[in-house]
Amino acid sequence: MKSEFSLIILFTALAALGLGRVIEGVHADVPESEAIDSSPQASAVLVPPAVEPAKQHVGRVVYNSELLGNLTSPSLREASGIAVSTRLSELVWSHNDSGYGPYVFVFDLEGEDRGRFYLEKAGSGDWEDMAAFKWRNQSWLLIADTGDNSSRKASYSLYLVVEPEIFPDQSPRLRPLSNVQKARIAYPSGPADTEAVAVDSVEERIYLITKRERPAQVFSLPLSVFEDEGEVHMARFETLLFTLPAPTLQDILEHPNLGLAFAQPNSMDFAPDRSFAIVHTYGHSYRFVRGESQSWAEAFASAPEQFDVPPMKQSEAVAVGWDSHSVYYTSEGKYPPLYRLMPADRTE
Q1: Residues 77/96, Cβ–Cβ less than 8 Å
Q2: Rounded Cα gap, residues 62 and 343, in angstroms
Q3: Measured between alpha carbons, how far is residue 346 from residues 134, 278, 343 in Å?
Q4: Contact (CB, 8 A) for 269 and 326
Q5: How is the chain split into domains, by residue range?
Q6: Which of 47, 268, 292, 314 has a Cα at 20 to 30 A from 334?
Q7: Phi, psi dihedral angles at 21 (to 5 degrees)
Q8: Cα dihedral 176/106/73/122 (nearest 10)
Q9: Which helix H or strand E contains 184, and what residues bound it?
Q10: Which residue in 147, 167, 144 sits closest to 85, CA to CA?
Q11: What's the chain's Rg over C-alpha atoms?
Q12: How far is residue 179's CA from residue 157's CA, in Å, rounded to a whole number?
């Protein structure tokens, strides 16, 4: 117990100092029997000179929350991603975590089940997040099969499919989704568990934030990776997320079941107007404001605004609404809640 406590103090102190490399060979909640390759080639990555750790103190912003309902599909047991439809703003999409098959679910904003879709020829190793976006005059859904709790996989999969149209009188039955495109990806620093993904359709790039490294790593890939299914595409390193606060000792003591995982990023989304990103962790959510001329790497180098979300069983899913103000959350568990949060200085 004493050694574990010392590790907690060490990690918290190192993160607060903003060390510019990954702590080698140490991953929260990975058993010792599953230790990963801790060589520098597998675990270390350098910080680009243009991106330095932010010096500003993390600010706070207040969001008002509203429980819209519960997601009523009995097949959604472990919601691990959520996205607001770009066809109809009154619909949200979700999916399960690992072990439940390649299905996406659609609900109205009261949580009523509007259908379940099977992605043909798609695997479902460990789906962790999703994104909905407009691109090339189409509405798209992207699903990230990027979970890797033991950080052992050589590559990961992204799936892209046209968002199906949902009609008002459509019954919530199972339907297939064909023409699913697949991209295989890898990271230059080696295997990494990743649960946060977002798409900037103006840049035509996919952004991913790794989960277990401290600081977390930000990578990106062009949407053109879906043009070559056979190749493994190497993600481009963008920055280290120094600005995502480490858990405090109080956080760890108040949430002993989470420990260091309290501050791990588990979902992300960009505002449609590209003005901010929301990065969600097990403890809090963070809004990274992006200036008009800034890159996302520069936005992530600035201190974020922290805000709290309603208590949920285990929330790993966030999405920003069409208005670029509302933020939606759901959680793991059967019939999970659907929350909408709005900045306190705004109304719906």
Answers
A1: yes
A2: 6
A3: 26, 17, 5
A4: no
A5: 2-30+37-343
A6: 268
A7: -155, 165
A8: 40
A9: strand 181-186
A10: 167
A11: 19
A12: 16
Alpha-carbon gap, residue 98 to 102, rounded angstroms: 9
Q: Comparing C-alpha atoms, which of 300, 306, 307 is closest to residue 54?
A: 300
Distance CA 103, CA 107 (A): 13
Distance from chain centroid for Cα 52: 23
Write out the chain's pLDDT in tens, 348 residues. Answer: 434 433 433 443 344 434 433 333 333 333 333 333 333 333 334 444 344 444 445 788 999 999 999 999 999 999 999 999 999 999 999 999 988 999 999 999 999 999 999 999 999 999 999 999 999 999 999 999 999 999 999 999 999 999 999 987 778 889 999 999 999 999 999 999 999 999 999 999 999 999 999 999 999 999 999 998 889 999 999 999 999 988 889 989 988 888 889 999 999 999 999 999 999 999 999 999 999 999 999 999 999 999 999 999 999 999 999 999 999 999 999 999 999 999 997 645
CATH fold of 2-30+37-343 reads Neuraminidase (2.120.10)
Distance CA 330, CA 333 (A): 10
Measuring CA to CA, how many Å separate 4 from each of 11, 71, 245, 283, 301?
11, 39, 21, 21, 31
Residue 218: CA count within 13 A, CB half-sphere: 26
**Strand 79-84 relative to strand 285-289, pairing:** unpaired
Peptide bond into 215 cis (omega under 30): yes
Rounded to whole angstroms, the Cα distance separating 210 from 218 reads 7
Residue 66, SS3 per DSSP? strand
